[in-house]
Amino acid sequence: MGGANRTNLLDLDRQGMEAIAVAFGAKPFHGRNLLKWIHKHGVTDFEQMTDLPKAFRQRLAEETRIDLPEIVFEQPSLDGTTKWVLELHDGQRIETVYIPDGDRSTICVSSQVGCALDCAFCSTAQQGFNRNLTTGEIIGQVWQATRELGRPPTNVVMMGMGEPLANFDAVVTAMNLMTEDLAYMISKTRVTLSTSGIVPALRRLKEVSDVSLAVSLHAPDNALRDRLVPINRKYPLEALIPACRDYIAGEKRRKVTWEYVMLDGVNDSIAHAKALIRLLQGIPSKVNLIPFNPFPGTDYRTSPPDRIDAFRERLIRAGIITITRKTRGDDIDAACGQLVGRVRDRSRRQLRAAQVPSSGGGA
Ligand code: SAH
Q1: 290 C-alpha to center of ligand 1: Å?
Q2: Is 1 contained in some domain?
Q3: Cα(119) to centroid of ligand 1, in Å?
Q4: Position 361 in a domain
Q5: For burial by CB atoms within 10 Å, which of 5, 114, 148, 354 has the most?
Q6: How far apart are CA 268 and CA 222, in angstroms?
Q7: pLDDT digits (tens, 9 = 90+) for 132-148
Q8: CATH number of the domain within which 20 lies
Q9: Model pTM?
Q10: Within its chain, how far is the Cα of 223 from the centroid?
Q11: Count of domains forming the chain
C-alpha cells in the first residue's frame, strides 16, 4: 500500500512529468503525453493511455497516484452559478464556484483550507485556517470543473477560499498548468490572482508569472485598511501600491483590478471615493465595487444602491474604469466572502475568541 507516499501526478507540471518519465525509463515526450491524457482528455486510467510504453504505464500504476478532490455536493443557484463542495483526501472540504456569463465561463478556485488573514468582513476568515492546498488540489478543482462543463473554463479567478500568495509555490505551479498548452490552455490574461496584499510575495510573483492581478483594497487609507484588512498593518499602502504598479509595469494594456467591498457607512462616502482617486493616480486601473455579501454573525451591511452608484460615478468622472460587480450565487452562499468549507481551525482563533470574557449580561 503506502499510497499516500506515492507521487500525486496532479502535483506535476510539464517539467515534472518529463522528469518522472525519464526516471521511469521512458522519454520526455511520454511525460508530455501523460500530462495531456490527464488534463486535456481527463483520463486517469493508465490502461487507456495507449501511446505510453507498457513498462512506463506499469510503473505509473505501481508507484504513483492520481488523487482528485471529490465533488461531494453540487448546489445550483437560480442565476446559473453553481457551487461545488469538494472533499480532500483528509476529509477537509473546500468550495469551487462556476459562474457562467454569456460566452464566458469563470471558475472561482480556492487556494487554502480556510484562511489565516482575518479580514473583518469575510466569512472564510471566521472559519480560521487549516492548511495550504497542494498543486494537485488546486488544479484538481479545474480538472473537475472541466469534466462537469465538458470543456475548460474560459477564465479562472483565484478568488475562492484562502490567500493565494500565502501558498505561493503550489499556486504558481497550478496556474502554470491552467495556461499550459498541453493542459487547459487558458490565456494568461484570463487567469487572475487576487491578493489581500502580501507585498514580498507579489514582488516574487512578477519574477515567475504574468497572470492578471486583482488586489483586495477595500479602503483608501491605512487607518481604515488596518481595520478591514489586517495584513495592511504589516504591508501598508506605501508598500502595496508601488508593488502593484511595478507588477504591471512594461506590460501594455495591463491594468490592476482593485476590489472594493461596499460597506454601509464604513468606506462608501464621497470623501472615500476622492481619497481612492488620489491613491490610484497614474496607475492603469480598473475598480470592481463589490456589494457586501452578508453572512451569519456579521454586523456589516451593504451600502444602499444609490450610494454605490454615486461612488462609481465619482470614479468614472475621474477617468477610472469602474464597475459594480454583479452579485452571483448569493442564494446558495457562493458569493464573494461567503465560502466556508468544513475547516478545522488550527490558528486557534476560535479558541481565543471563546476566551474573551463576555461583557454585559449576554448568555
Ligand atoms: N484572499 C484573496 C482571495 C479572496 S478573493 C484576497 O483577499 O484577494 C475574494 C474577494 O471577495 C476579496 O476581494 C474579498 O475581500 C472579497 N470579500 C470577502 N468577503 C466579502 C463579503 N462578505 N462580501 C463581498 N466581498 C467579500
Answers
A1: 9
A2: no
A3: 8
A4: no
A5: 114
A6: 15
A7: 999 999 999 999 999 99
A8: 1.10.150.530
A9: 0.92
A10: 26
A11: 2
